[in-house]
């Protein structure tokens, strides 16, 4: 498939969104295309970056992620301080739910070879396992959100915003300090011989930071992925009569009930998710078909189970690598800082399980 | 044709488009009179969307 017909289809969809939905959603679709294009074009995999650090002692992927976080924080924190009522941060509560969710997410993203954004862009590029995982990821995300009340009963404190606590300047200073500590830890882990940076990933990091900032400016909320998946599954479950959102603590909230009743094209996260799929498809359309070794039945089964757990745990953790790590840390949420080490510990287990099943 | 579409890819995109078409058909109509400002920053309106980090 060539890119031109696809670009024409996406241009038509952009115009339809602008005409029938809203110009904001149409612009967010373009932002999503940019995200998908960068993720797929630069092969900017959060999961792969962590795995390369763990298995090959290559810190370049993690360093690019830290640069992305630093640039996004440098822009988003002052914006949040300047427009405290118009823009919101990705604030999740530190909780047992977060600890368990982040650990399981970190493990399963290695098995499924994709976090939230990774699953999206790889599905868009036509990677079979990621395409198959997307629906179960959505079901998991929906079920995790539906069970969130029970998980939070294990213990939680109110979300902590560094920007509100310390102001944008100090919050950014603390964030930068934390990122330097992460960077030094990664460097220490990798050893002296490894190179720090990869040009392709660095360019990807800068572009993704710019797109994340655009997402915040236009939508008023940070970049997210998994809420959209959960919403899609919740809509189907509600329509099928197997789920009553009014009887559920999470879905009975006015914002969620409203999202269930209106088109997904009005949901910010859904529209950027669609854009990411489209952007990745555009990139893949210009490339030769990749030769992949077919998966065994056991690998399919393990991958699909991991995909479901990926979705479920992402809601317990209040986001994936995007919602909790990129958006959480860059907008000054304490939960992002708890998420990263727990997810990394999970990844240490996940890469071993991945090796065991010979993915 | 640089790339042949696999049957799984075709099923994936058809299912996705079918879902969006179904959703558009069953959801309440979009009221374009309530269209939000293009840029949220500086609009004076609080964000109203759902997010992965939100609880209840």
Descriptive notes:
The complex is a heterodimer of chains A (359) and B (56). By secondary structure, chain A is mainly alpha-helical. Chain A has one domain. Helices cover 74% and strands 0% of the residues of chain A. Chain A is built from 17 helices and no strands. The longest helix of chain A is centred in the first third of the chain and has 23 residues, at 60-82. Chain A is globular. The two termini of chain A are 28 Å apart. The relative contact order of chain A is 0.23. The model of chain A has no long low-confidence stretch (mean pLDDT 96). With 56 residues, chain B is mainly α. Helices cover 36% and strands 0% of the residues of chain B. Chain B contains 1 helix and no strands. Chain B is elongated and about 50 Å long. Chain B starts with 6 loop residues before the first helix and ends in a 30-residue tail after the last helix. The model of chain B has no long low-confidence stretch (mean pLDDT 89). At the A-B interface, helix 2, helix 7, helix 8, helix 11 and helix 12 of A face helix 1 of B.
